């Protein structure tokens, strides 16, 4: 089924038809312009390349300037390919796709990049409880990971051992996210619950 690009605007609350108070995430989805079509004869696979947002000319390299000049179009902020359009042959380059592809009540898949937390310790990254007590000279071990491996055997640290490191900034996908409301004139889709990513981050929504 088809998909579109958009950005996360934030969260709010709405009432549904049954009168229940629902937390929703507001997504600005599209319009997405078709910049290219991939065919089996030329590229070995079928896909459509969509663009979303706008980028200033001064932020483009020479190859990007030539590409968008051939399209006679404003530069898109992001380009991404979608292989799941069943009506690919009916789509035309330069055509705009918008929220009309979706309906209220649909279950969609939303992909985003989670918030980056930087380098974090094991307590924040993995939820460790800490080592030692709060007295008797243990203050330098409160947030330490403890032992990370035995000395005699195997005399090494196992691969995948939970330790401190970079946290967040990972690609996450949520499945079966329900569309609560669609506002076509503003290109907005309200989905139930939270969505990965910070405000104004790019998201991908697939039907």
Could you give the distance between the termini? Answer: 5 Å
Determine the CATH superfamily of the largest domain: Translation factors
CATH level-two architecture of the largest domain:
Beta Barrel
Total beta strands: 12
Uncertain stretches: none
CATH topology name of the largest domain: Elongation Factor Tu (Ef-tu), domain 3
Q: SSE order in H/E notation?
A: EEEHEHEEEEHEEEE
Shape: extended
State the major sheet: 6 strands, antiparallel, barrel
**CATH class category name of the largest domain:** Mainly Beta
Specify Rg, calculated over alpha carbons: 23 Å
Total count of domains = 2
Strand order of the biggest β-sheet: 1-2-11-10-7-12
**Structural class by helix and strand composition:** mainly beta
Number of alpha- plus pi-helical segments: 3
- Beta content comes to 35-45%
Helix content: under 10%
Mean pLDDT: 89
Write structural notes for this entry.
The protein is mainly beta and 207 residues long. The chain has 2 domains: 1-30 and 102-135 and 162-207, Translation factors (Elongation Factor Tu (Ef-tu), domain 3, Beta Barrel), CATH 2.40.30.10; 31-97, Double Stranded RNA Binding Domain (2-Layer Sandwich). The protein is built from 3 helices and 12 strands; from the N terminus they run βββαβαββββαββββ. The chain has helices at residues 40-43, 62-71, 122-126, and strands at 3-15, 21-29, 32-38, 47-52, 78-82, 96-97, 107-113, 116-120, 165-168, 171-183, 188-192, 202-206. The longest helix has 10 residues, at 62-71. The termini are close together.
